[in-house]
Amino acid sequence: MNKRYRRTIIAGNWKMNMLASGIKPFTEELIPLVPDFHKWCETVVCVPFPLLPEALRVFKSYRIRVGAQNMSQFESGAYTGEVSSAQLMDIGVGYVIIGHSERRELYGETDMTVNKKVHAALNGSLCPIICVGETLVQREAGVTNNLVATQLKSALYGVQVDKPHRAVIAYEPIWAIGTGKTATPDDAQQVCREIRAVIRSLYGAHAARVIPVLYGGSMNEKNAPDLLAQQDIDGGLIGGASLKPASFAAIINAANPF
Questions:
Q1: In whole angstroms, what is the distance from residue 204 CA to residue 160 CA?
Q2: Mean model confidence pLDDT for the chain
Q3: Residue 6 phi/psi, 5° resolution?
Q4: Which of these is catalytic: 42, 100, 119, 221?
């Protein structure tokens, strides 16, 4: 990490887990384990839509930011089941995950869809956590860098030069999500460095220096210190470990020394 230029972000992604009634007990167990975490780390928890009001209510007192896990590319209209950026902003949501591999693989989201959602988020003053990453087949074929660069360039296509500074990029190797496998710190650093190079090519050195890049492939309390020690990894997008207060706290605390 490089705290001189970039904020550290530890973001939990609860996926389709947890109930509203569990948010307060979770928080009461977490907070004593991470005293003064806000001094070194911006902590975000991205929850399912029905949990957003309770998460906003409970987390507000503890300086934990709330994010959504998805949003519509449209501002409003006849899109049953969708949620717009304006609706998220209206209740106080600050972050939204866009382009997660599960959305791409299970629900057919394309690079074009992701791009439209990025524009909608930035136009609505939400901070998009833009996910990019490769499958195991793609990694073994040696196309990781080209694929990730294409995904990122597609996601940011047409985004004005003053807006990417409000975005966060998350490198999530698909083969490491929920599998227990993790990219080595060197491998993760190499891809995150490539992501920063792409940002530099699109928006210049300042943008590359200040935009946080997170790692999101099965980060846990054991591997977090080594991953967070890498120069171009500014935090994590945490799946299963973010549902366990002790594990999530350990990852947040791992960001402190750097």
A1: 12
A2: 95
A3: -130, 150
A4: 100
Which residue, among 257, 245, 254, has the nearest Cα to 64 in the 3D structure? 245
38 a catalytic residue: no
How far does the chain reach from its first CA to its final CA, in angstroms? Answer: 7
> For 25-44, what is each residue's pLDDT tens digit?
999 999 999 998 888 899 99
pLDDT in tens, 93-131: 999 999 999 999 999 999 999 999 999 999 999 999 999
Maximum distance among all alpha carbons in the chain? 49
What tokens appear for 86 in the block? 């304006």
Structure tokens at 187: 């491998």
Asked whether the whole model's pTM tops 0.90, one would answer yes
Asked if residue 66 lies in contact with residue 47, where contact means CB atoms within 8 angstroms, the answer is yes
Point out the catalytic residue in the list 42, 54, 134, 172: 172
Report the SS3 class of residue 69: coil
Active site residue 100: yes
Q: Up-side HSE of residue 66: CA atoms within 13 Å toward CB?
A: 24
